[in-house]
Design brief:
It is a single chain. With about 200 residues, the chain is mostly helical. It is about 60% helix and about 5% strand. The protein is built from nine helices and two strands. The chain is elongated, with a radius of gyration of 26 Å. It starts with about 20 loop residues before the first helix and ends with a helix. The relative contact order is 0.07.
């Protein structure tokens, strides 16, 4: 009678299952759980710039050799079939979208960012505006929208000609060419001037 041996992580001793270990590692008889493997990678690659650069180069060559189309198809398949992977990827993407947006808004709108026109400071309502217009043309020319545009702004050292506005002020300027807040301010100034005279 043949009994299967219980496989344990060689670092922490936890029993290895399909949930806590990569199946390809079990086939190769590399007995290490996902948690210990992540810690190993953190120590070996992420905290060592030289080794990290060599690993990046190795991955670039691998991608070039195998072809990006094959890798993308594998990723799409995993995304469709693996609910846990899909949820993890969504959380990761959301975190980075918020991070890039916050960096750009703080650069152009101060810390904390606020609308240049009405002073709105809730970050959910704020957006980037092109001071001299032409935002749509620039997005089309660059082929970047949303998060990819924020990333482009960061990578290009925050070009001039942009400001932070709330969505209401930005849409009003785009649709009507002015913001109602500006008219209110002008009316208030005119009232003050006429009352002084």
């Amino acid at each position: 009678m043949c009994m299967d041996k219980v496989r344990r992580c060689r670092y922490c001793g936890v029993e290895l299952t399909e949930e806590n270990c990569y199946p390809s590692y079990l086939k190769k008889q590399w007995y290490i759980c996902k948690k210990c493997h992540l810690e190993y990678k953190r120590r070996r690659y992420w905290n060592n710039p030289e080794v990290c650069e060599k690993e990046k180069q190795r991955l670039r060559e691998y991608r070039r050799r195998i072809g990006l189309d094959v890798l993308r198809e594998r990723a799409r398949k995993r995304y469709r079939e693996d609910d846990e992977f899909r949820e993890r990827l969504r959380r990761h993407d959301k975190k980075y979208r918020q991070k890039y947006r916050e960096i750009v808004l703080k650069h152009y709108g101060g810390d904390p960012p606020k609308c240049e026109c009405c002073g709105e400071s809730r970050i959910e309502f704020l957006t980037i505006d092109h001071i001299r217009g032409g935002g749509t043309a620039e997005h089309k020319r660059l082929g970047r929208y949303g998060t990819t545009y924020y990333k482009w702004l960061i990578d290009n050292n925050f070009p001039e000609g942009l400001r932070v506005l709330c969505y209401n002020c930005n849409c009003s300027r785009g649709n009507y060419g002015y913001c109602p807040h500006e008219r209110e301010k002008l009316n208030n100034r005119n009232e003050i001037i006429t009352s002084v005279m």
